[in-house]
Amino acid sequence: MKKFIVATKNKGKLREIEEILSGMNLEVVSMEQVGIDEDIEEYGSTFEENALIKAREVHKITGELVMADDSGLEVDALSGAPGIYSSRFAGEGASDADRNNKLLELLKDVPFENRKARFVCAIAVILPDGNHFTVRGTFEGFIGIEPVGANGFGYDPLFFLPEYNKTAAQLEAAKKHEISHRGKALNLMLAELRERLIQ
Q1: Closest CA to 13 of 63, 87, 82
Q2: Domains, the chain, with CATH or none
Q3: pLDDT (tens digit, 9 = 90+) per residue, 114-141?
Q4: Taking all residues of the chain, what is their mean pLDDT, rounded to a whole number?
Q5: Nearest-10 crossing angle of helices 181-195, 11-20
Q6: What is the rounded distance in angstroms from the CA atom of residue 145 to the CA atom of residue 164?
Q7: Is 70 a residue whose pLDDT tops 80?
Q8: Which candidate, 139, 127, 140, 119, places its Cα nearest to that of 47?
Q9: Are the C-beta atoms of 121 and 69 separated by less than 8 Å?
């Protein structure tokens, strides 16, 4: 079974990726599981650039098949913020609740119909021979008035989906994987990997 290293320390993200890739003949492992514990500085200006930076660093050390993603939330009323700064939106060491509270505070005077937002996920894959590709998935919705739901992580409890009348944190895992930014990007990645005969 081919080792597939995911360049993340985010356990929620790793769990989602494992679930989505469960049908593949790949041994999904985190960078920590292969002994890489360093924080990789993301100095890119786009989700794709940041994903490639992380994937290249881990590939340089391991020489294995490596995937990294960079994902975040773009809110139209905030001119696309927090964007690539989504995880650092409320400062270093902030919790999901801190980030959600900051977002709600910034949007407190914005009516619901103007709270359009999307999750973006860019994935970079470095193949063992050093070649790479990137894919992107998006997930459209609105920022709710208060956090609802216990599934998911990050901004999921605030991300309202009118067509389901639920937040992303209220969706069943299988449904979320089917329609989410990460689910879409991972499916694009799988199609690309199969085309490149990685399995």
Answers
A1: 87
A2: 2-195 (3.90.950.10)
A3: 999 999 999 999 998 899 999 999 999 9
A4: 91
A5: 50
A6: 16
A7: yes
A8: 119
A9: yes
Distance, CA of 89 to CA of 104 (rounded, Å): 12
Spatial contact of 178 and 184, defined as CB atoms under 8 Å apart: no
Q: Which residues are catalytic?
A: 70
- Reduce the secondary structure of the chain to three states and give it as a string: CEEEEECCCCHHHHHHHHHHCCCCCEEEEECHHHCCCCCCCCCCCCHHHHHHHHHHHHHHHHCCEEEEEEEEEEEHHHCCCEHHHHHHCCCCCCCHHHHHHHHHHHCCCCCHHHCEEEEEEEEEEECCCCCEEEEEEEEEEEECCCCCCCCCCCCHHHEEECCCCEEHHHCCHHHHHHHCHHHHHHHHHHHHHHHCCCC
pLDDT of residue 197: 55
